[in-house]
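Format notes (please read before filing issues)

Several people have asked whether sequences and structure tokens are stored in separate files. They are not. Every record keeps both together, in the order shown below: the sequence lines, then the token lines. Line labels are part of the format and must not be stripped during preprocessing.
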Amino acid sequence: MPWRLLRFGLSSKHPEPRMFTAPTELRASYDVVIIGAGGHGLAAAYYLAREHGITNVAVLEKGYIGGGNTGRNTTIIRSNYLTPEGVKFYDASVQLWQDLSEDFDLNLFYSTRGHFTLAHTDSAVRTMRWRAEVNKHYGVDSELVGPDFVKRACPSIDISCNGHAPILGALYHAPGSIARHDAVAWGYGRGACQRGVEIHQQTAVTGIEVKGGKVVGVQTSRGHIATNKVLCAVAGSTPRVTDMVGIKTPIYIHPLQAMVSEPMKPWLDHIFVSGSLHIYISQSARGELVMGASLDPYELHSTRSTLDFTEGLSAHMLDMFPFLSNVKVNRQWSGMADMTPDFAPVMGKTPVEGFYLDSGWGTWGFKATPVCGKTMAWTVAKDSPHELITGFSLDRFRNYSLTGEKGAASVGH
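Then the structure lines:
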């Protein structure tokens, strides 16, 4: 390390404030308790404090900040969904993403790349055309393009995919982007702390007290908290928390794995997704190829990675990019995806008064972080669902009013 940089770092004239405060004790009561210090939980705390003036908030995390799915995703941001509810919701999120670095005074490495969803069959082409038309109707920049367009955008791609699944077209979504996932959690966490919110790490929730159909408190590994409002934002651990209040949901948990390569010189400007090959890929600012596939085909509450995933994903990657055969894999990991039958989230109020859900994010939660925090903060503060999340209510499963997003979320990305 250069001496001038070290001297600056050790100088008392230029003290660097802590990213987060570290409260030592839990208060006896809070206006709102948020379970889960990932991107969604911290974003909700941030907007509760900034936009609604509610600062007596505790964010409880059994591990560490951003240590769950926020730190285990592949950071793709897009709004090219299929349903009107999904398109409007995720487009609002994309708009928020574009100003987050400035809001936080923190570089999130937000980078607009352009997102290709590849079509390998005639039926897939029809679906891409359908999605493009829905997107355009709501002002989202998406279009159906042919294989020549794909090849010009990425000369290195094998359009024939080794003859296994030739690319017939794609949905091109110009606003598609990537960002640094851990920095997002840090930015929201720091902003919430600066406004008076307390973030308690290594604090597990062991029970939620309900009396007369209302939340009255939370039991933790560090003691009891009195509160009338609890927001659950714990991704793959959602069923464990909803069991505490006696709520049944259709959420089921599957592992979702990903991996990154050794750093390479920049060559992949865009984001590519293939539902037929079950892969998606982008290149990070450090030159790593960030790669993922579909859900593991079994229900399991685990973050253990497997060799089978690496072998299968690598084979399909070589169908599209055969020149990568000598590139090494640096690391792989797994997260727990909380899936719903209609591939749309579960957000808003529940039958238990004062208990709010932010769940069912499956493979599409990172991109929704800003708008999810904003809408859930509104919902908790007003005790009324924000207009953007009315299509994601829990009671849609009882009323058979599903929000069918499977056509736009069939691959983990």
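For reference, the curators noted about this record: The chain has nine helices and 20 strands. The chain has a mean pLDDT of 94.
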